[in-house]
Design goal:
OsmC/Ohrsf; GMP Synthetase, Chain A, domain 3; three-stranded mixed sheet; 141 residues; 2 domains; OsmC/Ohr_fam; elongated; N-terminal domain of TfIIb
């Protein structure tokens, strides 16, 4: 895998993936940024959240679970001093589907956390990561 991060100005950057996608990253105004993009540490959490969500959705679909939505709500704590690394991360999945089996959802979350999600398994080496989930019935508003 290869990516490129190009400096734009100030503390603004454009990250480009080898698959041709781009994203703007920027620092906070108090650090010279213009607030035109995500902060790099936000992007790291989003990447981890997408990685683990990919696993959970895929595992549930393969288990023939009637999943219609999956949202990973992630809360992270950081060290007070530089480097302000993540010290704790909690991933809470809100999985929606009529008749979802809680045991299957729990299994999918556990498999992602312990076996499949490269991003969260890598981050677990640096900080505590916990997981939780809730199941919601779909609303037909």
């Amino acid at each position: 895998m290869q990516v490129k991060v190009k400096w734009v100005d100030g503390v603004s950057f454009v990250g480009e993936s080898e698959t041709g996608h781009a994203v703007v990253l920027d620092g906070a105004p108090e650090n010279g940024g213009r607030n035109i993009g995500m902060r790099p540490m936000e992007m790291l959490l989003i990447g981890m959240g997408a990685c683990t969500s990919f696993d959970v959705v895929t595992i549930l679909k393969k288990s023939r679970q009637p999943i219609v939505d999956c949202v990973a709500e992630i809360h992270a704590e950081r060290a007070d001093s530089v480097p302000k690394v993540f010290t704790k991360i909690h991933v809470h999945f809100v999985v929606t589907g009529e008749g979802l089996n809680a045991t299957q959802v729990e299994r999918a979350v556990k498999l992602s956390a312990e076996k499949y999600c490269s991003a969260s398994i890598m981050l677990q080496k640096a900080c505590e990561i916990t997981h939780g989930f809730e199941i919601k019935a779909p609303s037909f508003d």
